[in-house]
Amino acid sequence: MKSQRLPRYDPEQSYQWNYDHAPAVPQITVPEMSRRWHFCGCEVGSPLGISAGPLLNGRWCCYYAQLGFDVLTYKTVRSQQRDCYPLPNLQPVECGQLDGTQSRVSPSTSMQGSWAVAFGMPSAAPDIWRRDIEWTRQQLPQNKVLSVSIVGTMQKGWGITELAADYAQCARWAIESGADCVETNFSCPNVTTCDGQLYLDLRASALVSEAVKSSIGRTPLIIKVGHFVDQQVIPQFLSAVDGNADAVSMTNSIASRVGETDNELMFESQQRGICGRAIFDASLEQVRAFALAIEERQSRIEVIGLGGIETAKDVTRYLNAGASICHLATHPMVDPTCGIEIREHLSQHSMR
What is the CATH number of the domain that holds 276? Predict the structure, then answer.
């Protein structure tokens, strides 16, 4: 089936419109892989997953589950309802490979592989997303893994202890609703509160990961992080979360301002997370650095590679760098059939 015939997220419409207009599950034959993969104790049919972002609700999860993806990450939920930022939420940008030193990237009138993401981690109310996750787990085949992304919501007068408890509450609700694993979002460049860059605060990372792990027990805990400009911090971060985290997912975008000039900035001059092809090199290098640090620590933490993946070759490079599996987001939103194409290519070529 041609990609252009399949529905996809419409950036011209609001987040709520896309939430309400999830596509029907397509009738497509997905090629079987010749081997199985394992991550966090789960056996999956391919190394392909969807990261938090494209899967706004259960119907979106079921849609991409039928398009060759075996790990489905339900978009980040909160302990209270939160509206999405106004349009544009997905602004195409024109830039080369980013490394975290770029202060500004230029907007583009067409998608060239990368865009600035500006949702602000919206969330339905807990009673809505809890019912939806329960429905989603019932609808998904048993061989599909349902991961739920959560984030704490800072309140006036709160400190890190209260924020950690809020994370833990969301995690418990997710597990009670049927999640196979929980992903704590420690990185979102599009929000300015401390929960947006938690991974850069080692003490906070330790406290929150411990609180969440205590609340979910043996259920796998994944921590999603952003870009570490200073890779010397990586061993310290691992030391902070080891014993609580089962896996670390990276990279959740690279932050930059968007505008033609410094005097013509979009998004009220605030940074936004750049996702897509522009972060491939930096994310791949970070996966390699994490894998090396994990090996040196003799830790059992696994790495999930994401950022700029478009082809089977990209997947193979992440796996060879030390990732257990790979997550995609931007490219499947642009080309919904890419998962099937990647599986077909991987099944025809020997892997590591």
Answer: 3.20.20.70
